[in-house]
Amino acid sequence: MLKLFSKVLIFSxxxxxxxxxxxxxxxxxxxxxxxxxxxxxxxxxxxxxYAYAGATVAxxxxxxxxxxxxxxxxxxKSKFHTFNDLGEWxxxxxxxxxxxxxxxxxxxxxAAMWTGIDRKKARxxxxxxxxxxxxxxxxxxxxxxxxGFSFADVGFNTxxxxxxxxxxxxWQDQRIKLKVSSKQINYESYIVTSENGEATMDxxxxxxxxxxxxxxxxxxxxxxxxxxxxxxxxHSFLQNEDSRFPKWLNLAVGYGGHNMFGGFxxxxxxxxxxxxxxxxxxxxxxxFYLSFDIDxxxxxxxxxxxxxxxxxxxxxxxxxxxxxxNTLGKVRLHALHW
Length: 338
Known about the structure:
By secondary structure, the protein is an alpha+beta fold. It is about 40% helix and about 20% strand.
């Protein structure tokens, strides 16, 4: 499921870029009779709404057709069935589903607000699309013999969409934003011997087979290097606009995992031979982080393009000192965690 989810996550980020930030409230320059392209309308704009609806349908339809013809076509299909993948990849992919659903809901809400429709309608449109887009992947999985429909994935998809919806209902703001960070790992040249003792391979080769060699692919696919964050804006919870506390400073809680070279266990097959890593040498474990972050969207600017750029950059957590607590029972201090 790793390679498919990585493709979906990368595509989700790319398709969301055009929508991000265009629905953020800004003062309209009354000296211009026509709205600027990135400027949200304060009243319902029929042409914009049709453009938004058309783009949404085209993106959704195109994604489903492309995945069915390009990705799923390579694998044997079966009758619709379910499977339980909870715990696979130390649940990094589950947190990834949460992130993706929240991100797609947020992007669609911004796009809907850009058309000038009522905020309540915009939030439900965004939530509906965020849930539909992610859950559709699960339906396709349900007809794939290699995988199956995952109720756990649907649960995290739902949680991601509801995280956006709940915050917008309560505060008309996303005080808690989901972000991602990743670092490059140079895997040691640990030699692994096949179970029958006839061949060896180094761990770097296994990592390249799993996560790829390109920088962009490793950023998204390497679960050992990736951390997913819930970044909360402290000033917004103080409920005091006169407070001198920095409006851009966030407190972030992160989740990660390490020593993962297989879905549930560190064993795999290559060229007809099976390999396995020792649990003593490579214990799989989960990581929990506490760190600081910056909310780029709190940086004031009247330029619509700059606001859009800050919205995109705000998807990634800034490097900062962090405290790590992991399931090995260890506490680590990171001078700068990526």
